Amino acid sequence: METDTAPQWLTDEEQCAWRTHVEVNRMLTYQLEKDLQPFGLTMNDYDILVHLSESDEHRMRMSDLAAATLQSKSRLSHQITRMENAGLVRRENCESDRRGLYTVLTDEGMETMKKVAPHHVASVRQHFVDLISPESLGELRSALAPIAEHLRAQRGRP
């Protein structure tokens, strides 16, 4: 993002909004991660379990899972190896593409999801949803939607 013009510095209000967003994002992620620790999961683990549990046949191509979880293929591969060792997922070859691999949610992974999801939802409610009025929650969603759309477009995803 190179430019030949002078920087367009943030106003005090813009800077305050930006810094509040960054601080809340970091602290909320930290808290949600901390609340998953008793289950031996990280936020990345949980994100992978969610994507697999919601996908057809509880499986996704590794490349699609990497894109969905915003991880590099090599980082995801290490993550999946760790989750395989814990019995949560397994890898399967892709019949239509010999180089392709699927990550598949195991029965143990699905049981873990069923056990952890209620606790995670309670954590999200406690540290986020219940602290915002329903009206403000709608306004927040509306305010963030154009940013999400812009960033998805930057990644070439709908």
Provide structural commentary.
- By secondary structure, the chain is mainly alpha-helical.
- It has a domain of 74 residues: Winged helix-like DNA-binding domain superfamily/Winged helix DNA-binding domain (Arc Repressor Mutant, subunit A).
- The protein is 63% helix and 11% strand.
- It contains six helices and three strands, in the order H-H-E-H-H-E-E-H-H.
- The protein has a three-stranded antiparallel sheet with strand order 1-3-2.
- Helix 1 crosses helix 5.
- The chain is globular and about 55 Å long.
- The relative contact order is 0.10.
Q: Can you describe this structure in just a few lines?
A:
The chain has 158 residues and is mostly helical. It has helices spanning 12-36, 43-54, 62-68, 73-85, 107-127, 134-155, and strands at 59-61, 89-94, 97-105.
Sheet having the most strands: 3 strands, antiparallel
CATH homology-level superfamily of the domain at 36-109 = Winged helix-like DNA-binding domain superfamily/Winged helix DNA-binding domain
Q: Architecture of the domain at 36-109, CATH level 2?
A: Orthogonal Bundle
Q: Radius of gyration in whole Å, from Cα?
A: 19 Å
Spans of at least 5 consecutive residues whose pLDDT stays below 50 are none
How are strands sequenced across the largest beta sheet?
1-3-2
So what's the overall shape?
globular
The helicity comes to 55-70%
Order of helices and strands: HHEHHEEHH
Alpha-beta classification: mainly alpha
E-strand count: 3
The percentage of residues in β strands lies in 5-15%
What is the CATH T-level topology of the domain at 36-109? Arc Repressor Mutant, subunit A
| Overall average residue pLDDT | 94
Number of helices: 6
The first-to-last residue Cα distance is 22 Å
In the CATH hierarchy, what is the class of the domain at 36-109?
Mainly Alpha
